[in-house]
Design a protein that fits this description.
Helix content is 34%, strand content 12%. It has 338 residues and is an alpha+beta fold. The protein folds into two domains: 126 residues, Phosphorylase Kinase, domain 1 (2-Layer Sandwich), CATH 3.30.200.20; 195 residues, Transferase(Phosphotransferase) domain 1 (Transferase(Phosphotransferase), domain 1), CATH 1.10.510.10. Helix 2 crosses helix 4. The longest helix is centred in the middle third of the chain and has 20 residues. It is globular. 38% of the residues are buried.
Length: 338
């Protein structure tokens, strides 16, 4: 049975991945109260029939994992929509994490007007897998693919925009939100190359007056996780800063994995080339060969500054910076390279 089929009875619901009762509208309200002190946000709930009619039942056009882009039909006066199915999530997450559609929808409604997040339209919980609906406008979206992004300046721009989005989560609300879901797979680019941070279901808020929160479960993406998160399940703003530092190094080197499962227990173990190639005119040996560039002096200096900033983020160079500081430094570097 396709994931778009409606659920026919409560007996069927019990056998599905998701418990329908768990994802009713009141769960969204609970998430809003938990995440943003009950601040009202515009969230529209669509029926399965509305989604099917708007997309002309074309649910088989997969563009990238867990996403389906629809360019035909209308929904709430939006001609272009992006549907995201919440597939593969645990129906019973730990209470202190609250992952899944309710949290994703609630936080998406809070950041929807920011240019580096997807614009939320609403959601539908009448399918086998809950569906979140984003406004597509006239934009085409695609996931970040380093094989196709061969411009160093464009990679820097993506880094700056992702840093801006993370900084917004950290400072724009009474309680900081920690994204803790860093990875290329969660960044979408519109047709103009603007980066959109996506999938907010793993966000956790830091309690007022505290600097961190301890969870019962950490996750499995070791490559982006600092040791305090891996071993102690402690989440703070530094969790995002560390993950972003790893992301920066991947943009620079094109490496898919920097810390493997084998060595994740060793403190901050990264490839030996990180600092040893700077100041010796050897940056070209670590830069992603897919990038089409000639390393002139000014560009090499910008890359070295980029690498140093990434090392500060992962705690290899003095005090770990705030995400706001990281975004500002990247913005300065972009202007310097103009």
């Amino acid at each position: 049975m396709g994931w778009w089929k409606k659920k026919k009875s409560r007996a069927v619901v019990k056998e599905q991945t998701w418990d329908r009762d768990q994802w009713r509208g009141e769960k969204i309200l609970e998430a809003l109260i938990q995440c943003c002190d009950g601040k009202p946000n515009s969230i529209k709930f669509f029926t399965a029939d509305q989604i099917l009619k708007a997309t002309q039942k074309h649910f088989c056009k997969f563009v990238f994992p867990n996403y389906i882009f629809m360019g035909n039909g209308t929904l709430d006066n939006h001609r272009m929509i992006l549907l995201r199915k919440m597939k593969g999530r645990s129906p019973h997450p730990p209470r202190d994490i609250c992952t899944g559609p309710p949290k994703d929808v609630a936080i998406s409604s809070m950041v929807s007007d920011h240019k580096n997040f997807m614009k939320l339209v609403g959601c539908c919980f009448e399918f086998e897998y809950p569906v979140i609906v984003y406004y597509g406008g006239e934009r085409q979206y695609s996931p970040v693919d380093l094989n196709k992004i061969v411009s160093w300046r464009r990679r820097m721009k993506i880094a700056e925009e992702v840093a801006t989005a993370l900084a917004y989560l950290h400072v724009a609300f009474p309680r900081p939100f920690v994204y803790r879901n860093m990875g290329l797979k969660n960044i979408l680019l519109d047709k103009n190359g603007v980066a959109k941070l996506n999938d907010l279901s793993y966000c956790v808020s830091i309690p007022k007056g505290e600097t961190h929160v301890k969870l019962t479960w950490a996750g499995k993406d070791y490559d982006y996780m600092d040791n305090d998160y891996i071993f102690n399940r402690v989440v703070s703003e530094k969790t995002d800063v560390f993950g972003f530092g790893v992301f920066m190094q991947k943009l620079l080197t094109g490496e898919k994995i920097l810390r493997s499962f084998v060595n994740w227990r060793e403190k901050n173990k990264f490839p030996k080339w990180l600092s040893s190639y700077m100041g010796e005119g050897r940056m070209g040996e670590i830069v992603d060969p897919k990038m089409s560039l000639v390393l002139e002096e000014e560009e090499r200096c910008l890359m070295e500054a980029f690498l140093v900033l990434s090392e500060r983020c992962i705690g290899l160079r003095g005090e770990v910076p705030k995400m706001v500081e990281v975004a500002k430094e990247l913005r300065r570097s972009l202007k310097q390279g103009e």
